[in-house]
Amino acid sequence: MDHRLALALSQLRERFPVDAEVWEVEAFLSSEGYNRREIGEIVSAWVSEIPPVTDSRTAASQSSVPFRVLGPHERGRFTPEAWGHLLALSSSGVMSGAELEGVIDRALSQVEGRIALDDIRTLMESGGIDDIGPSPDHVTIH
């Protein structure tokens, strides 16, 4: 996966701006033939890339987004793909910090054992948070 990961990351850098929507990136990777696990790994790596900073004072003053660290009771419960997906949604603005904490709390209380990406998506859909946009049969009436 290392070679495919590097190739996919270079394609994402060329195709998408830094502030691209995560669901667009996931849709692109799916169309390229990647499976859910691979998409989770690639999106996690893409989101975690930090651009080089020339002056640390200006970067610190511009970055006011908090980051989330796993607590001792959470370590080992989330798969890397699930945790990366949650962080990607939070950092892209799809989920607020409060929504992120709510999803984490629900996952910890409702899922037995290791929490996978599918578990996160199921919890989010049942909780009304749809990270990939409305379903195809969703109709909005104005």
General description of the model:
It is globular, with a radius of gyration of 16 Å. With 142 residues, it is mostly helical. About 13% of the residues have low confidence. The protein is built from 7 helices and no strands. Helix content is 57%, strand content 0%. The longest helix has 14 residues.
Secondary-structure topology with pairs:
Layout: H1 2-15, H2 22-31, H3 36-48, H4 56-62, H5 80-92, H6 97-110, H7 117-126
**Strand-and-helix sequence, N→C?**
HHHHHHH
The number of strands is 0
Task: Give the % helix.
Answer: 55-70%
Task: Report the end-to-end length measured between terminal Cα atoms.
Answer: 46 Å
In terms of structural class, how would the helical and strand content be classed? Answer: mainly alpha
Number of helix segments? 7
Mean pLDDT: 75
* Residue share in β-strands: under 5%
* Main sheet overview: none
Shape: globular
Spans with pLDDT under 50 lasting ≥5 residues?
52-63, 131-136
Key terms:
0% strand, 142 residues, mainly alpha, 57% helix, single chain
Quick recap of the structure?
By secondary structure, this protein is mainly alpha-helical. It contains 7 helices and no strands.
